[in-house]
Amino acid sequence: GNSVTQMEGPVTLSEEAFLTINCTYTATGYPSLFWYVQYPGEGLQLLLKATKADDKGSNKGFEATYRKETTSFHLEKGSVQVSDSAVYFCALSPFQGAQKLVFGQGTRLTINP
Amino acid sequence: NAGVTQTPKFRILKIGQSMTLQCAQDMNHNYMYWYRQDPGMGLKLIYYSVGAGITDKGEVPNGYNVSRSTTEDFPLRLELAAPSQTSVYFCASRISGGGAETDTQYFGPGTRLTVL
Q1: Where are the beta strands (DSSP E) in B3-63?
Q2: Rounded to an integer, what distance in angstroms lies between the CA atom of residue B39 and that of residue B36?
Q3: Is A3 in the B-facing interface, judged by CB distances under 8 Å?
């Protein structure tokens, strides 16, 4: 079946630190991969996505590369800010046009000044 | 474009009461979804719809009902509220058809429900 496993949280970093949140997936076909972000008190927003192997999604200084050989889509940012404090969800769509997304359990990130 | 809107933002119910959570989108999306998010947990799919008049169960449908009479609206009904339904409820929508945008879901701001 299809599944997404995320790095256990919570994660706490100091401002300007380097961030990595690990995400690995299991899928039978050629999935699309997503990172969503949920700021406190808000709904989820799409942060970035990649639709095929070796694609790199990027937005707001965050990046993630679709690695088929390691079935991974790790989220990275070179220098985090307090405003990046949020819950981050990795997700996959098993194939383009699939009816449902498969979400990971979420990773809570707190950035201290 | 208002995107996906949800009402109410907050609600407290007593055990056994009923209520309807409203969700509307103005993006002409065919697909709509209801999720619940329990404290510190990920999202669980309750129901979804691929178009007006068509609905299907997700992972956790028990205790809920939905209807989809228009493309824009997808209300979620709780008939006999129970403490286990205390959660934050999110509605989402996405476009159908081909193309890279097909799989991206757009979320509403959520409804925080407490059942006492």
Answers
A1: 4-7, 10-13, 19-25, 31-37, 43-51, 54-57
A2: 10
A3: no
Closest CA to A103 of B97, B51, B100, B59: B59
For the cut 90, the answer to whether the pLDDT of residue A77 exceeds it is: yes
Label the pairing between strands A11-14 and A107-112: parallel
Residue A104 and residue B42: Cβ atoms within 8 Å?
Answer: yes
pLDDT of residue A66: 97
Q: Which of residues 32-51 of B touch A (CB under 8 A)?
A: 33, 40-43, 45, 48, 50
Round to whole Å and give the CA distance between B3 and A19.
31
**Nearest CA of chain B to the CA of A78: how many Å?**
26
Q: Whose CA is closest to A29, among A90, A98, A95?
A: A95
Q: Give the pair of three-digit tokens for residue B51.
A: 């178009």
Q: Give, as one character, the DSSP assignment of residue A67.
A: B
Assess A103–B contact: CB distance below 8 Å, yes or no.
yes
| Mean pLDDT per 10-residue segment, chain B (116 residues) | 91 96 95 91 91 94 96 96 96 80 85 96
Q: How far is A69 from chain B (nearest CA, A)?
A: 22
Q: What part of A 41-60 touches B (C-beta under 8 Å)?
A: 42-46, 49, 51
